Amino acid sequence: MRTSATWCLAARLALAAVVAACSSSNAPPSPVPPGPLYVANYNGSSVTAYAAGATGNATPTVTIAGSNTGLNQPSGVALDAAGRVYVATFIDSVTIYATGATGNAVPTATITGSNTGLSQPEGIAFDAAGDLYVANVSNNSITVYAAGTTGNATPTATIAGNNTGLSGPEGIALDAAGHLYVANNGNSTITVYAAGATGNATPTATIAGGNTGLNQPLGIALDGAGRLYVTNYGASTPSITVYAAGATGNTTPTATIAGSSTGLNYPSGIALDAVGQIYVANAASTNHLYSITVYAAGATGDATPAVTIAGGNTGLNGPTYITF
Q: Which of 116, 144, 213, 319 has a CA positioned 20 to 30 A from the CA of residue 288?
């Protein structure tokens, strides 16, 4: 599944009871639960979604699978502002499904063809304008497509070349200002590019070196404060490493989630909800069961998941990237 290796949601904490004298007017509002969590299942050629609050052996609320779907080793998954589902498949296509699609759904559109520059696409993400960014593992590039693109479309921008530092790019993320963050599985780095970067662009920042804890990184996500969360797929001890906003160079993580209690097993995709809880897809199975593990905001060390989605009913089968 990888060029370098053949490879749910958190239950809401109940609000504490308050005494009558300091009731409703002083109590903070409950956080808004996240929307459905979408998961691309590489081995199962499917996309599954789980309701807010899902845990344990949860049945998906959505399963996109079947011969009509065009899914073949799906990796990246992202939702646009209208809720349409975009899926990168390892056979050089991005398939698009209507909001709420499920079952053996025919894509409403597909981006594929020799003009697209797609080459074993993996991570995908949208910017604030609705433009689609795709990480292409095989040719070490990031290709960008205008909102609404379909068919054999030429990218509006392509980041590629020796100056870029791209090496087996996998997970990608964009911040509110349009800066692009890329996890490079091939050389264990994180590279960052200016908004609108194209061509043989030099990164504005590179996180790399022995202090970083990076080891074949795959998934990447940002929280609201600009902190960067990375899954390390190749580590002998699987881990999640966290970096301060603006981190660069041979920087030490501000936090590392790793250890026997974490349930991490070849961690791949990663996503954060609005309250900072950390969701991780584990691409390898434990006792033939794949999982999504969820950690409390600020978790570090040998943290036990707050929630684990796993079991025969879940439909998880080689889960890769995830998104809300």
A: 213
Average pLDDT for 107-133:
98
Q: Does residue 22 surpass a pLDDT of 60?
A: no
Largest CA distance in the chain: 68
SS3 state at 251: coil
CA dist., res. 212 & res. 202, Å (int) = 20
Cα–Cα distance for residue pair 260/186, rounded to 1 Å: 26
Q: Which amino acid is at 239?
A: S
Are the CB atoms for 246 and 240 separated by under 8 Å? no
Q: pTM of this prediction?
A: 0.90
Task: Give the model's pLDDT for residue 11.
Answer: 31
Report the SS3 class of residue 243: strand
Q: Which distant-in-sequence residues (6+ apart) come within 8 Å of 17 by Cβ?
A: none
DSSP state of 164: G
Token pair of 122 as six digits: 């993996």
If DSSP codes are grouped into helix, strand and coil, which group holds residue 112? Answer: strand
3-state helix, strand, coil in the chain (%, to 5): 0, 40, 60
Cα dihedral 156, 160, 163, 167, rounded to 10, equals: 140
- Please report, for residues 76, 111, 134, the alpha-carbon distance to residue 118 in angstroms, rounded to integers and kept in the order given: 13, 9, 8
Average of per-residue pLDDT values in the chain: 90
